[in-house]
Design a protein that fits this description.
This protein has 506 residues and is mainly β. The protein contains 2 helices and 44 strands. Strands 24, 25, 26, 28, 31, 33, 37, 39 and 40 form a 9-stranded mixed beta sheet that branches. The chain has an 8-stranded antiparallel beta sheet with strand order 12-15-14-18-19-22-23-41, with no helix packed on it. Strands 27, 32, 34, 35, 36 and 38 form a 6-stranded antiparallel beta sheet that branches.
């Protein structure tokens, strides 16, 4: 039984330690702490302290609290203001020295992301991980001219690389995150790239290019790729290998998986739509109207007169129609996304925290990389909604949805990119969950020309041949599978690659 914990932390650039029983609160200034040479906690703590204490009995066992970002200074905040943006990473099975090293490699990304987003590059023993979250962003996040370790990292999203810098766009619903390994790096220009898995990628040249490729610090220099040529790169037995393949092409699969994507089928709205049945005038309708090929979401809200699925409305409108969503008297735009005045669009609005203000179709998608693009127009000045339901939502509840910028008065495109490693059933969805606001503050969204494209995950090699193969000369300790490890973790009788040479540990 431990009566005290040993806390290691930084003081004036040196690692110091202290033993504490947590009986009193102890604070100290440090960007990291390690407990008992077993648990490491790393933060970009923005001047906050670390605290340990407040011991109390918990089921007859004394427990103390660790505060990785401690402050007892009060602040005045206002509604809508960002209170803080923090980064905190926990590591198990690391000692104090390893925790210190990991701290020096932590890289916050907040200043490179739009408002409402936060992110960090978190290092680990063998690689670093890119972690990004959309907490309250109203637009997709683009990293432009981004470098890591002096090169361009390759992401699961399509990545444009020039001057050894990456440009990539991330699409996430609010309160959702994504984690990706930063294990494939490219130095050079005139290429696009996309991860296949953690240690392999496609690279396509947009002009004749010579690039260097690093996978888990194993480097292949001077790889020549001709214009419009695509190679697949991967790590095998401590070497970077490449093979020329057919260029992965995006195929428009809208007609295969989505019916009535332009809302040209079925009836259009011929009267005003109310959010609540109790408010209807004679001849009007309320809530979500039938749309051919699509199923309406149900809010589950019943008004005081017994009208079910109130607090929402939807239906297909002709462009320039005089019919409106009642409450704030907003109807469809006069022009379609192409600038013409013909065709139809799907309109949706929701108020007072109504969920499921959406239309959806059940689909089963094969493995592959997908992009769902949805033009959207907000005819109301209000733009508050709780969360987006525009995208692909799996049966397991994983939402591949886009943050929709709902600024009024112009067509914009909500883009959702997602990657499926196996056949997956779910819903193609259009709409949102309503915020706790009335019709004046809620967006009145109109959608048209939905498109789904796919890149098959199983591209076939084109006249298979090895373009190049690196020598295993990276510094450090790696397993034969290319995974970097700490030297202290090497096991007896195992074979490792140490600074490019195979070594048997005895």
């Amino acid at each position: 039984m431990k009566l005290k914990r040993t806390l290691y932390y930084d003081k004036d650039g040196e690692t110091v330690s202290t033993q504490l029983d947590g009986n009193t609160l102890t604070t100290f200034e440090s960007s990291w702490v390690n407990i008992d040479n077993a648990l490491g906690v790393v933060s970009a703590n923005n001047g906050k302290k670390i605290g340990f204490g407040h011991r109390s009995a918990n089921n007859s066992i004394f427990t103390s609290k660790l505060y990785p970002m401690y402050s007892n200074t009060s602040r005045t905040v206002r509604k809508g203001h960002i209170v803080d943006a923090r980064h905190l990473v926990y590591y198990s099975n690391v000692n104090a020295q390893q925790t210190r090293e990991l701290t020096h490699r932590l890289l916050p990304l907040k200043d490179q992301l739009p408002a409402g987003w936060n992110g960090v590059i978190a290092p680990d023993a063998d690689r670093s991980y890119f972690l990004v979250s959309n907490f309250k962003g109203e637009e997709n996040a683009q990293l432009k001219d981004f470098q890591f370790q002096g090169a361009a990292p390759v992401f699961y999203e399509p990545t444009t690389i020039d001057n050894s810098k990456a440009t990539v766009t991330f699409s996430l619903a609010e309160n959702h995150s994504v984690a990706q390994p930063l294990s494939v790096l490219v130095s050079g220009s005139h290429v696009t790239a996309q991860l296949i898995d953690a240690t392999s990628a496609y690279i396509t040249a947009t002009a004749d290019a010579t690039v260097s490729i690093s996978i888990l610090n194993v480097v292949l220099n001077d790889c020549v790729i001709k214009k419009d040529e695509t190679i697949r790169v991967w790590l095998e037995n401590g070497k970077v290998k490449t093979v020329r393949v057919q260029k992965p092409t995006q195929k428009d699969v809208t007609a295969t998986y989505i019916r009535n994507a332009d809302f040209s089928e079925g009836p259009v709205v011929t009267t005003d739509i109310y959010g609540y049945g109790k408010d209807m005038s004679a001849g009007a309708v309320y809530s979500m109207q039938p749309v051919t090929g699509w199923t309406a979401g149900e809010s589950g809200v019943t008004d005081e007169r017994g009208y079910a699925n109130s607090a929402q409305g939807g239906g297909v409108f002709a462009y320039g129609s005089s019919n409106v969503f009642r409450g704030n008297q907003k109807g469809a735009p006069t022009k379609n996304p192409d600038g013409g005045n013909t065709g139809r669009c799907l309109g949706i609005f929701g108020v007072w925290s109504a969920p499921n203000c959406n239309y959806y179709q059940d689909v089963t998608l094969p493995s592959g990389s997908y992009t769902l693009t949805v033009p959207v127009y907000n005819t109301n000045t209000g733009k508050e909604y709780a969360s987006s339901l525009t995208g692909f939502i799996t049966d397991d509840g994983i939402p591949y949805t886009s943050a929709v910028n709902v600024a009024a008065g112009a067509w914009q495109t909500a883009t959702t990119t997602f990657r499926l490693t196996e056949e997956t059933h779910g819903k193609i969805s259009i709409g949102y969950n309503a915020a706790n606001v009335g019709s004046a503050s809620a967006p009145h969204l109109f959608f048209d020309h939905i498109a789904l494209t796919c890149t098959d995950a199983s591209e076939q090699p084109d006249a298979i041949q090895t373009v190049a193969e690196s020598a295993p000369h990276a510094k450090g300790v790696f397993t034969l599978q290319g995974t970097r490890v700490y030297s202290s973790a090497m096991k007896s009788q195992d074979i490792y690659i140490v600074n490019g040479q195979k070594v048997l540990v005895k």
